[in-house]
Amino acid sequence: MKVQTRITALIFCIVILFLGGITLLWYYQERQESIILQEREKDKKSDLTAIVATKGKTLQALVYDYSFWDDMVRFVKTIDKKWAHDYIDTSLPTYNAQAAWVYRKDFTLAYSFNTLRDKGLHTLPLSRKEMRLLLSGNLFPHYFMHTSQGIMEIWGGPVQPTTDIRRETAPEGYFFAGRIWSREYINDIAKLTGGEIRISAEREGGGEKKHSDVIQFSQPLTGWDNRRVAWVSFYSKDPLLTRFHSSSVLSIILSLAFALSVLGILSIRLSRWVTVPLKKISSSLDKGNTEGIKGLGDEKTEFGHISRLMTQFFQQRQELETAMASIERAKREWEATFDAIPDPIFIHDDEHRIIRANRAFSIAAGLPFTEIINKPYYAIFPRTDGPLEGCKKALQSMEIGEEEMTFETKTYRMRYCPTQDLSGGYRFSIHVVEDITAHKLLQNAEVTIHAMEEANRAKTLFLANMSHELRTPLNSVIGFAEILDEEIPGSLNEQQKKNIGYIIKSGKHLLSIINDILDITRVEAGRDELEISSFCLRESLESALLMFRETAGKHGIDLKLDLEPEVDVIVSADERRLRQI
Prior knowledge:
Layout: H1 3-67, H2 70-78, H3 81-87, E1 99-104, E2 109-114, H4 128-137, E3 142-147, E4 150-159, E5 173-180, H5 183-193, E6 196-200, E7 214-222, E8 228-237, H6 239-287, H7 302-340, E9 345-348, E10 354-357, H8 359-365, H9 389-397, E11 401-407, E12 410-420, E13 426-435, H10 437-485, H11 494-525, E14 533-536, H12 537-554, E15 570-573, H13 575-580
Antiparallel strand pairs: 1-2, 1-5, 3-4, 4-5, 6-8, 7-8, 9-10, 9-13, 11-12, 12-13, 14-15
Helix pairs in contact: 1-6, 10-11, 11-12
């Protein structure tokens, strides 16, 4: 084929390429417009969601604050309508709310009020079963419903005392508040989002976009059962997208004009710039030397570049041979490093056959390399019935994974690392087998120690709390008994005075037992101290005997205290410790 024919064919190909490039550019611009439109639509959706949530926070705050209030707990029980008028009815406009409902904990209506004077809003259109289902799934339910005034947004919450900061106690009732999405309210949302907002029963903007600069979408408003109640439709013409579309059309026109100019100039000059250099290069190739293209090497053209490439060919071949030697040396170094790793490592193909393993794996398996290669790894080490589940999942997801397994008496952590070739297809997987037996034993020991410490702290805390709870009322009993014994309220007969004495002695002994329980916590904390005092030994023994006499009598046992006269002495000791003995 003549050079002139080739040049003509080349120009024709260039024309096709230019046309293809312009077509791709047009497609790219259209694609960019679509991406920008999607991003803008996504931003508008986020803005609309955030604005609706922000404007709804006042209604949510009303429900949260009023349901988290001791006065509301009392109101559910008393239904004080004056309190409701002062604190509920008058507060609705402050929170831009139009209705409020208070339900008892059995889901019966206790009170309701709405500023719209709508009898249909006297109670929520929910049965007890539906309300129980609504509140069982969410502590603070949020939903929408139809009313005669339009769509109403509802927030609800359990009525709980102010001290229940975590809202964990059983609800004393339930408080709901509602807000009508009026035209003014919807226009306010539209102003904040920079578009038009409509509430409709059918979805708008779900089909194909007719205009690339128009953002149109719909979001659902759901009822108490998560069923769609209505659609919030957004419409806006974005000036940024309009300008981008105009700019895209202009860039396509300019690109086409430039392409035609380049093709015109190229068709004129190509024959002069290509024919002669091609002949020289062809001659040099036919002769097998570079004598004919020496002059071309000095030119700063593509043909000069080809000439220089031909001149450098043999030099590059030498450099290639040197590079191949370096690659071979690097391969040997990699193999040495791979074998030096202490953890067992192997590489397998998509059929789980081992294609490479390091020395540590060969030692762990107890087999030479010749008996390992091309064998399924699960039949070598650690032996299993088939491929590990984590390995199969890693092959499917092409992501790094790991799992633990027990083989014989040891625990291993298996790490999987699938690799891909340049085209994205599966190449091979690298497995690292790490012996974590010692680590697991240490970990289990730490967990056991921690559990024992927690159990000991819980026991100590329980004893301290229970002792405190018992000692407080017991002190009151002893105190009142002592007041009666001193006959401050009035005189007592001998039998009453004797009985009061038993109460005081028994109470003090019981208080002593509770103090003994507290002593257990002090002993465990290493803070036990003796309380030395002077007391009558006989009285202390009689007090100890008094606590057991009634119990022994119920079992037919008569307890008596027989003491020598010399026992009636004053001693110095810890009286509670002595009674414990």
